[in-house]
């Protein structure tokens, strides 16, 4: 499966984070992350500050991919749900689309049913958002032509429009 | 030494050495787990991704590939766990309609994997698995201790200034597993005889239902009454029914092979073909092998032992005779034990189901014409249509009423197992499954009150569950019947 980078705008991220926030509150989870299968965190809510988000995302997606392969070996073709149970914290994985995974980190293992229920309720909306982003035609920015590096940077700065996300970098 | 299995850490270093007794115990625990949870199969692997032991129906799967993938998966889970400050994660993935997998680390380097389908609920699995985990942990810890002893002894051997000849002597002495473990076979075969005789005497379908008992184990024994496992113990059998198997530490010698010697070795590894075993032992083993060939259900269950014995008959060295004898006797003892267990289970199921079917039939007779009753019975049991219909053969109308002939069912069970290459345990499971689906269909037909129907269905399910716990069903019988009797007595069954 060829993965392509999703082109996110800040409005997209805000919308997705709002959805994740709702999910987190309803299911009583610790934190919620929406991941690309390549390990990129698309949106998240309450990732612990001390944690390296990049590493966390990469491990989560790697783990999910490994298990997916395991499932395929067992003859499960449409693998979706996975659950890690630890002493204090648990992880619930649910596939949103072919390329994205929702991960919920929660403490009380008895709340698995609740997490599952609300995750499944949030899935269609998340899938719709991701689908919309995926379907959006890829835009290659018109890079300014310039004779020197300084000129190039100056033109590039001019070309950035407020609101397309780049101004927040 | 080929039966010795090692458990490796993720970097490939040997951590625990298991002898064949310990591997057998592990396999037993896995099989028990499968039986009690109705899981498809369970396996124990090491952190390096190699299979240590499996239990259940693994035929359809590439267990090696699964093991390697699972080990890799658990390694990433561990990283994730350490990032979150957790000691360990256990993994479950779910797919409601197909296969589910549960994976948990038992020791730091041993991983238990259970694959289950719709028949098992995760709650049940979680409950039962604790017992299996503690069993497996015990075995592994015992093995760990004996490994430490063995390794320290090896270290003594290799550290000292010993000539090559002496090292060789040590090695060949250690290659003989300590013959401490013979005992349990001694009185085994005697127990089989009455059951076999019983099975012979019983006339299928005649008289009371309790009389016609021959069940797969007994039927098997009846047909094989002359062959090995029920033959008298070999005269050479060690007479002392001694202590429980001690972890025979010195037999595990993880030395590198001593191949690169300049001069040829003495006469050690090239044996006289087939001549090493005493003739009477070889004859016994051959008989047993023929028997295992005839009763594939057991042959599959004891496949490792059978292949070992086969090899032993062909090319055992004189110094391996004791080992072969011990393996043979232990196999026979285990077989007898398994047979008795299976027979007991079959008997319990027989009495339970006969009463259920009888009662349902009585209830139906009061309400409908005979023709309708016939049709219902046929639909529920006989016309199940699949190639592995076990109970259909035994449910038939005789003298105006439907009976379940368990002699025929037992025979059919053996036949189906033979054809499908199932173990008899798996065949019994299938039988119970068919019986329950038949009874559920029948009770849906008879009982219109949904609450009563639900109660009945639950009681079938309970047999199903408790069957797996084997003899415990015996205690449950009155309880299940209590549920049923008031329904019949109150006359409210056919609404």
Strand portion of chain B: 5-15%
Please name the CATH architecture of the largest domain in chain A. Answer: 2-Layer Sandwich
Secondary structure: helix percent of chain A: 40-55%
Structural class designation of chain A: alpha+beta
The number of distinct helices of chain B, counting runs of at least 4 residues, comes to 15
CATH topology of the largest domain in chain A: Beta-Lactamase
User: Could you name the ranges of chain B where pLDDT drops below 50 across 5 or more consecutive residues?
Assistant: 156-273, 471-495
The largest sheet of chain B, given as strand count, sense and whether it forms a barrel, is:
5 strands, antiparallel
How many distinct helices of chain A? 4
Number of domains of chain B: 2
Please state the CA-atom Rg of chain B, rounded to the nearest Å: 26 Å
Give the CATH H-level superfamily of the largest domain in chain A. Answer: Dynein light chain 2a, cytoplasmic
Structural class of chain B: alpha+beta
Tell me the Rg of chain A in angstroms. 19 Å
Strand order of the largest sheet of chain A: 2-1-5-4-3
Give the overall shape of chain B.
flat
- H-E string of chain B: EEHEEHEEEHHHHHHHHHEEHHHH
For the record, the count of structural domains of chain A works out to 2
Oligomer class: heterodimer
Show the largest interface.
Answer: A-B, 31 and 31 residues
Describe the structure in your own words.
Chain A is of the alpha+beta class and 169 residues long. Chain A has two domains: 10-135, Dynein light chain 2a, cytoplasmic (Beta-Lactamase); 144-169, no CATH class. In chain A, 44% of the residues lie in helices and 17% in strands. Chain A has helices at residues 10-27, 53-73, 112-135, 149-159; strands at 31-36, 41-45, 81-85, 90-95, 100-106. Chain A has a five-stranded antiparallel β-sheet with strand order 2-1-5-4-3, sandwiched between helices. In chain A, β1 (31-36) and β2 form a beta hairpin. In chain A, α1 runs antiparallel to α3 (112-135). In chain A, 31% of the residues are buried. Chain B is an alpha+beta fold and 495 residues long. Chain B folds into two domains: 5-174, Beta-Lactamase (2-Layer Sandwich); 192-237 and 273-495, no CATH class. The longest helix of chain B has 47 residues, at 321-367. Chain B starts with a strand and ends in a 5-residue tail after the last helix. The interface between A and B is medium-sized, with 31 and 31 residues.
């Amino acid at each position: 499966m060829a993965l392509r980078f999703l082109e996110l705008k800040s409005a997209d991220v805000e919308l997705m984070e709002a959805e994740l926030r709702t999910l987190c509150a309803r299911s009583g989870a610790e934190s919620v992350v929406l991941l690309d299968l390549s390990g990129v965190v698309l949106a998240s809510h309450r990732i612990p500050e001390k944690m390296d988000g990049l590493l966390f995302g990469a491990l989560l997606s790697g783990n999910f991919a490994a298990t997916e392969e395991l499932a395929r070996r067992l003859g499960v073709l449409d693998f979706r749900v996975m659950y890690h149970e630890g002493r204090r914290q648990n992880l619930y994985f649910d596939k949103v689309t072919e390329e994205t995974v929702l991960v919920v980190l929660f403490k009380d293992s008895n709340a698995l049913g609740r997490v599952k229920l609300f995750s499944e309720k949030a899935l269609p909306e998340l899938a719709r958002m991701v689908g919309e982003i995926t379907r959006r035609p890829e835009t290659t920015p018109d890079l300014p032509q310039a004779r020197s590096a300084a000129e190039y940077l100056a033109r590039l700065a001019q070309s950035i429009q407020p609101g397309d996300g780049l101004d927040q970098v | 030494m080929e039966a010795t299995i090692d458990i490796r850490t993720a970097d490939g270093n040997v951590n625990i050495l298991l002898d064949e007794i310990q591997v057998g115990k592990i396999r037993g625990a896995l099989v028990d787990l499968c039986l009690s949870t109705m899981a498809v199969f369970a396996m124990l692997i090491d952190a390096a991704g190699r299979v240590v032991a499996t239990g259940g129906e693994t035929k359809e799967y590439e267990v090696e590939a699964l093991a390697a993938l699972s080990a890799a998966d658990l390694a990433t889970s561990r990283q994730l766990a350490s990032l979150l400050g957790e000691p360990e994660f256990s993994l479950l993935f779910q797919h409601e309609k197909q296969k589910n997998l549960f994976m948990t680390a038992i020791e730091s380097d041993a991983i238990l994997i259970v694959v289950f389908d719709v028949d098992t609920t995760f709650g049940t699995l979680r409950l039962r698995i604790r017992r299996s985990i503690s069993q497996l942990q015990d075995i592994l810890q015992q093995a760990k201790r004996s490994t430490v002893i063995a390794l320290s002894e090896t270290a003594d051997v290799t550290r000292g200034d010993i000539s090559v000849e002496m090292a060789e002597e040590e090695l060949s002495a250690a290659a003989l597993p300590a013959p401490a473990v013979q005992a349990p076979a001694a009185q085994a075969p005697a127990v089989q005889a009455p059951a076999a005789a019983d099975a012979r005497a019983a006339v299928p379908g005649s008289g009371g239902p309790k009389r016609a008992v021959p069940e797969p184990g007994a039927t098997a024994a009846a047909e094989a009454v002359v062959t090995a496992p029920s033959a008298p113990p070999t005269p050479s059998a060690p007479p002392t029914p001694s202590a429980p198997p001690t972890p025979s530490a010195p037999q595990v010698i993880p030395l590198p092979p001593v191949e690169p010697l300049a001069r040829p070795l003495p006469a050690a590894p090239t044996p006289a073909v087939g001549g090493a075993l005493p003739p009477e032992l070889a004859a016994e083993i051959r008989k047993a092998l023929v028997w295992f060939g005839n009763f594939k259900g057991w042959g599959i269950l004891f496949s490792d032992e059978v292949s070992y014995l086969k090899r032993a008959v062909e090319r055992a060295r004189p110094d391996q005779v004791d080992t072969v004898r011990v393996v043979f006797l232990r196999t026979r003892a285990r077989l007898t034990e398994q047979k008795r267990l299976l027979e007991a289970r079959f008997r319990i199921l027989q009495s339970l189901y006969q009463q259920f079917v009888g009662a349902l039939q009585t209830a139906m007779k009061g309400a409908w014409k005979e023709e309708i009753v016939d049709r219902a019975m046929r639909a529920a049991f006989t016309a199940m249509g699949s190639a592995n219909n076990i109970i259909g053969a035994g449910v038939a109308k005789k003298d105006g009423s439907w009976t379940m002939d368990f002699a025929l069912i037992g025979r059919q069970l053996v036949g189906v197992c033979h054809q499908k290459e199932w173990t008899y345990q798996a065949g019994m499971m299938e039988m119970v499954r068919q019986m329950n689906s038949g009874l559920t269909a029948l009770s849906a037909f008879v009982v219109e009150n949904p609450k009563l129907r639900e109660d009945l269905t639950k009681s079938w399910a309970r047999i199903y569950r408790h069957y797996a716990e084997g003899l415990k069903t015996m205690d449950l019988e009155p309880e299940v019947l209590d549920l049923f009797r008031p329904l019949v007595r109150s006359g409210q069954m056919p609404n």
